[in-house]
Design goal:
Elements: H1 3-16, H2 23-31, E1 38-44, E2 55-66, E3 70-80, H3 89-107, E4 111-117, H4 124-133, E5 138-142, E6 155-161
Parallel strand pairs: 3-4
Antiparallel strand pairs: 1-2, 2-3, 4-6, 5-6
The protein binds coenzyme A.
Coenzyme A (COA) binds at residues 16-17, 78-80, 85-91, 119, 123, 125-126, 128-129, 132.
């Protein structure tokens, strides 16, 4: 990922997820994981092909675990800029990026056996999004992860089993 793209991705992550982190901290965190262990895909907001592209949102797929010939992937961070939310950008990005990570891992002889994602309890929009498009096989609330810091909210772990 080029520096300009990383900068834009970090700005969206700060705006939509991590307001309390600095841009440098967010960029450090993202850069600490390298391809193929973290694969970041962006959606651009171009309405016309000859306009300069700006990033409307991103999704990142992390290698959570692997066996001899299977991998478990996690949707690590995903965010769409406020003005593009609920217009289908997230859905398209989720579907097209999944095809690409699957092709990548299959090209290495690995099948994706499960996908994990863990939105915060209070992120009801994100939960609805993953309910609708990931269609999880399992869901569990891990309550009160953050103590009083984030109003005692927990994490909703969702998983989709793809193969056995
Ligand atoms: C969650 C998110 C990535 C979804 O992307 P999106 O482009 O807005 O979603 P789409 O337009 O493709 O899909 C819309 C569907 O997602 C769900 N959804 C998305 N945002 C929602 C919201 N604010 N409230 C309720 N449902 C929402 C709904 O199911 C909606 O379909 P519906 O209106 O027919 O019920 C985006 O809203 C976002 O960036 N949110 C803030 C950051 C965040 O929570 N990231 C996830 C952290 S794990």
């Amino acid at each position: 990922m080029q520096e300009r793209e990383l900068e834009q991705v970090a700005e969206i992550a700060k705006e939509e997820i991590y307001s309390f982190l600095t841009l440098e901290e967010i960029k450090d965190w993202l850069s600490s994981m390298k391809f193929p262990y973290l694969q970041i895909f962006v959606a651009d907001n171009r309405l016309e092909i000859d306009l300069p592209a700006d990033i409307a949102g991103f999704i990142s797929w992390r290698l959570y675990d692997q066996s001899v010939n299977k991998v478990v992937l996690e949707i690590f961070w995903m965010a769409i800029k406020k003005e593009f939310q609920k217009t289908g950008v997230g859905r398209d990005l989720f579907i097209t990026s999944f095809d690409r990570v699957r092709d990548y891992w299959e090209g290495r002889g690995m099948t994706i056996s499960a996908i994990l994602v863990a939105p915060y309890e209070k992120r009801e929009g994100a939960q609805r999004f993953f309910e609708k498009f990931l269609r999880p096989s399992h869901k569990a609330l891990i309550p009160d992860v953050w103590g009083t810091e984030f109003a005692k909210q927990g994490i909703v772990v969702m998983s989709k089993i793809l193969t056995n």
